[in-house]
User: Fold these one by one.
Assistant:
Number 1:
Amino acid sequence: MTAHCARRAARGRRIAIVAAGFALSAGMAANAATAAQPAPQTGPPSDRQRQQTEAAGLRDYVVVRSSVDRSAIWIGDRFSFIVDVDCSHGTDILTDDLSRDRLRLDELDVLGMEETREDRGDGHIVYRFTYRLTTYSFEPATKRIGEMNLKYYVRRPGQRPEDIVPAGDVMVPGATVVVRSLLPDDMNFARYHSERPPVPRAAAFTMLQPIGIGLVIVSIVPAVLWMVALQRQWRHRRRRQSARQLRHDERASLDEVRALDVEAEAGRREAFDRLSALVRRHVSGAWGVSANGLTPAEIVSALSAQGNGEVSAEATLFLDTCEKARYGRPEELPSRGACLAAIDQAEQLIGLGRS
């Protein structure tokens, strides 16, 4: 029995050794087959992958900052929203992304825009965009300027604008501005009037009230007297010219008219013009009738109302003759003899009014 068991154990060991040999041979064959297979070949990166890699590397070369010059404003105040872009290592931006139409505003109005570009050399460019803004509304109290996407690209020699392909984009930070107001923020707790009852006026102030009213009335009297004195002084300055001075001026005016060249048409028209002014001035100075802006008929009516009907008809006829000579047709202009006769007639009219 013991010998039989020993034989079975020996036979089992032989089978295990054979199986292990087969397994080892199969493993070595698999490894050899795997090693014999060619290695998988990796192709070049695609254009999309290359662009993404390039954009990730260039994003650090485009630095964008934004700010406002005032953090709080009143209604109608102007303030500036400023965007600074720093491009280096040959990068540049599409400025159309920062046009005034691309602004994302919350109840804000654009008044104007300024753009500057500074080329500092060696592929370094600095931009500044200044937006002039304002608001005319209270709500909302906090006005917001939204973020914007700004595309950038790499500048290449000879590149045309239509051939530009953006390499990526960066975010332009937004900003906020608060609208000031004199009203309290919480209207539920606003107190516009004092809740305390009015304090009664002291007895002394009650007695002084009629005294103050009386002083005001008394102070009006000197002012009225002063105005009357000024009016009298003004009337005194507007007194009529003295008769002696009036005669002297009229004589000088007649001498000037006689010195005119009445042979020429222009001289006769000027003579009649001066004679008309002389008679009107005499009527104003001698009888107190303001004749400068009156027609001949109105002057006669004014003279008749003052009892000077004696000169009414002659003055009317003379002034009518002067008006026709001044404004009539050339063929209706009086002759040289008629002009000299008019000068004598004016002297007679003036003589009638002398005292």
Number 2:
Amino acid sequence: MQTNPNNPSDNLDEEERDILESYERGEWTEKGKTTLVELQQAASVKPLMAKELYLALSSEDAHRLQARAEKHGVSLQELVTAIIHASLEHEEVP
């Protein structure tokens, strides 16, 4: 098939062409419109800043934490955060 540089649909792969054809057959519907004001409001929301905390741990505790994190398939940061959160909530920690 020879491509026409003036026809953007000629540069599509098979999946993209299927999607375009589906759209052209009217199989896609609009769910609603987002206004410019709504987009601006969403963009202005700032994520909550996390506090950084530096800890000095014994080598033994650091190794035990790392081993537990690996056992549960989470990062060391995630495990320490979970332990602190659970401790503050008086819950069990894995």
Number 3:
Amino acid sequence: MYPLIKLKANQRGVIRALRGGHRFIARMASLGFTPGAVVTMTRNDGFGPVIVSVRGTRVALGRGEANRVLIVTPQGGHLD
């Protein structure tokens, strides 16, 4: 598993788990970040917020938040 923050633009991942307390997990679930959901990184400049697409919606996440969303790649490949 990798943190979502590791994805580069146009890379996809499947959410496996969320690390955090009840409030964080509830907030992320309300935005569509649930296990099994496919996410596509839209923008990751290496600083500032990242923009991802999940369940047909674009969402901006802080880097700390994106670091707590754990993903796997769709084909089980490695991220460079």
